[in-house]
Structure formats: C-alpha cells, structure tokens
Amino acid sequence: MVPLTIFDRATFDLFVPTVRAYSMPAPSNELVKESLARALAVYPHMAGRLVVDDQGRRFIHVNNRGALVIEVTVPADLADVLVDGTISNVGEVYPPLPEENVGAPVFQVQLNRYRCGGLVMGTIYQHHVADGTAMSSFVRMWARAAREGKDFIVPVPAPHVHDRASTAIPRGTPTPVFDHQNIEFKGVNEDGISNKSHAVVPMEKIRNFKVHFTPEFIAELKSCVGGRCSTFQCLLAHVWKKLTAARGFHREDFTKVRVAVNCRDRANPPVSADFFGNMVLWAFPRLQVREVLNSTYRRVVDVIREAVSRIDRDYIQSFVDFGAVADMRGKKLEATAPVAGTMLCPDMEIDSWMGFVRFHDMDLGTGPPCAFLPPDMPVEGLMVLMPSGTDKGGADLFIALAEDHVDAFQQICLSLDLMN
C-alpha cells in the first residue's frame, strides 16, 4: 500500500489517453501483451489499483491485479479511417474512461486491429500514479521488451526509482513559506488570481485539434524573439499571444498560463530523472491582455522564464512542508488541477513533452508508429506541445478550445508578430 505523495495529490485526478497507429507490418496483439507484461514487472505500480482508506486517504495498492487489455476487430482498412494523421472517432479507440477512478485498473490498453492488419493502440493511465516523465520511462521499457522478446531480461530498478517517500521529506519542523493553499490546492476563501473558479461545460462545447509548426516557422519565431530561447518558451509566447487575440477579451483583463514544471532536478537534493511517480509543480506567468498583445516576443518569454524560475528548491521544500502540516492537522486537500469539462478561458494550461522520449517513436519491433493521434483532452485551454513525428525539428501542439474560438485562432496561429 503506497501512500500518494503531496505531488501525486496535487495533479489531475483523471485518466490520460494516448493513441498510436501502426501500419503493416504491425506488431501482433500477442507481442504487445507479452511485452507489456514484462514492462509491468519493472513498473508494478502500473499493475495496481487506487484505493481509499477509512479516513479518505488514497493509496496505490501494488497488488499485481494487472493492466486491462481490450481487443477489438475493426471491419475496415486503416487507410480508410486514418486521414491526415487523425481518426474522426479517436475517442472510441482507447478504453472508456472509468466512471470511478478508485478500484479501476490504473493502466488500460485497447488494441484495435483493422482488416488490413494495421493496429491502432489506445492507452489510458491514472495521473495520480505517474507524470509524463515517468510514463516516458515506462513506454521506453515496454518498447525495449517488445524488441528484445524472449531475450529481454527484467532489470531490477534502483531503489530510488519507486521510492516515493524520498521525494517528499519535510524539514524537522515543517515550515511552508508560500501560499500553497491557494495555488496548488483550493483555499477556504477566494484569493483572486490563483484560486479563481472556472465554469464547467458539456464536453461537446470543447473542440480538440492539432497545430503543426514547421522547423522553418520555429526558426523564424526564434529570430523574432532574439537571444537564447528554447522551442517551448518561444512557442508558448506565440500561442499565448494568438490565443489571447482569438478569445477577444477586454484589454484590461488578466490572463495567465499554468505551466507544468518538472521538479526532479530542481529539488534539494535533486531527484533522479528516472524516478517513477509525480514530481511536477506549476508556474503561473500572468499579464494583462493588452500586455500580451502589445509586448514583444522577448518580453513575453521573459515573463514566462521569470515565473518558471520561482519553482526553485525553496519553493519545492515549502510545498513538501505544506503537505506535512496539512496531514498533521488532518486537513483534506482539494487540488486546483482542473476537472473534465473545465473552461480555463481566459487562462490556459500547457504541458511540454519536448524533452521526453519521443512518444511517437514507440517501436515495438516492427518500426515506429505511422501516426501519434491527438486524444480528446477534456479541459478547454489545455495544450500539450511535443516534437513532430513527421517533420524533424518541427513541433505539434495538441489543443482543446471552446468551439467559438477555434476559427479565429486557426486563422492567426501561424502568423508572426513582427515588432521590435
């Protein structure tokens, strides 16, 4: 019985889908299942279940119950349904999202086998068990097990890989110095910017789509920014500008971005990059609409950088201490992470997968996927940025937007602001 850490409890309480398509020759269902079993031996948390004790506390029950695999036969050719890297019914090719997270298999797979022999593999996993960095390690192990087959030797993970408790050690006298009750968790009283509630709407009002940024576009954007700038930082500045313009707010309104920050190498002492669990906090760059629209790219990038830099060793230790104090007082914590159907507008949230093992390069022995499909993200304003699977040096932005703002955003999202 593994207690959730304060990092686990602060993240999304939902299942995260990913979808990959494999054209012929595609891996067989048996190969996928056998290699998954081998990977689960290395990452046993993924074969467990979330449980709740009589005090309402969540645990990961590492009980070897296994991952759920659903096998589906589709009476169509993959080429007939995979058009321009997308499938119209993408929500049907991964397992149905559980109505209750507690007790459900924390990792589930749906193998959709097409008439031509092609395969679309949809997976979902419970975010309280792992973050994107951790899932990157799991996917890499799964692919390795598939490629090596019977020659695969299950490695014994180093003790730190599954040692969640070591990532959340409070000081002798826990002393939180930042307002985590109104940032990562909901406070009793409204605090204004960080604890603002957002509307929840029916899912049909949220539209998912992908935007592709070519290497040439990214290079030109970086030249507009000037100086050193990561691809993630410059694209976030650009998207923040374009999405703010498309939404059409009053110029004196405020807009902020919830930016996921990997804390592994920011903690003191640093946590190994291959730690399996959650260790993400969030930065909140915030500007008035007029500032976002009228500022140079460099100015917006600097605001993003400054916000991210605040997630340092002191902030992380304060967060851990806050969790310890809350537990000592028996305080029930409710994360500010949005739930399904949330409209973040006028705000937004972005996760970067730019530094992960390339999810679309999951070679199970017959070659990498022919497509990595954007899943239906359940939160308006939520975005994921990842390297392009087809255009080396390019990037793909998966984004969920309110239907009313999609056309306006798509018309301007590939135009640069050429200002000094």
TrEMBL record:
Checking Pfam families in the record gives: Transferase
Drop me one GO molecular function for this one: acyltransferase activity, transferring groups other than amino-acyl groups
Question: Which UniProt key words apply to this protein?
Answer: Acyltransferase, Transferase
InterPro entries associated with the record: CAT-like_dom_sf (IPR023213), Plant_Fungal_Acyltransferase (IPR050317)
Family from the record: Belongs to the plant acyltransferase family.
Protein known as: Uncharacterized protein
Organism of origin:
Eleusine coracana subsp. coracana
